[in-house]
Amino acid sequence: MLKIKEIDIQYITNESGERSGVILSIEDFEALLEDLEDLALVAKRRNEPTISHEALKKELERDGP
Question: What are phi and psi of 52, to 5 degrees?
Fold first, then answer.
């Protein structure tokens, strides 16, 4: 996950000197989009039932390689 402190952000300001936009590198922009997609998936699946790690391991062993 990308950390805000790691992003090189350039701000666009209006005539009053207020920040009105940002400029990001394509790399940072794509990383942020990926993080947003991951968070959206987590939110979508938050009510799904869970299984224990041991149960998952057994299921994977049963299914084989």
Answer: -75, 165
As given in the structure block, the two tokens for residue 5 are: 């402190």
Instruction: Give the SS3 label for residue 18.
Output: coil
Along the 65 residues of the chain, how does pLDDT read in single tens digits? 888 888 889 999 999 999 999 999 999 999 999 999 999 999 999 999 999 999 999 999 998 76
DSSP state for residue 9 in the 8-state scheme: -
CB 24 within 8 A of CB 9: yes
Query: What is this structure's pTM?
Result: 0.64
- Where along the chain do its domains lie? 4-63
What residues contact 59, with CB distance under 8 A and at least 6 apart?
51
19-23 and 10-13 as β-strands: parallel, antiparallel, unpaired?
antiparallel
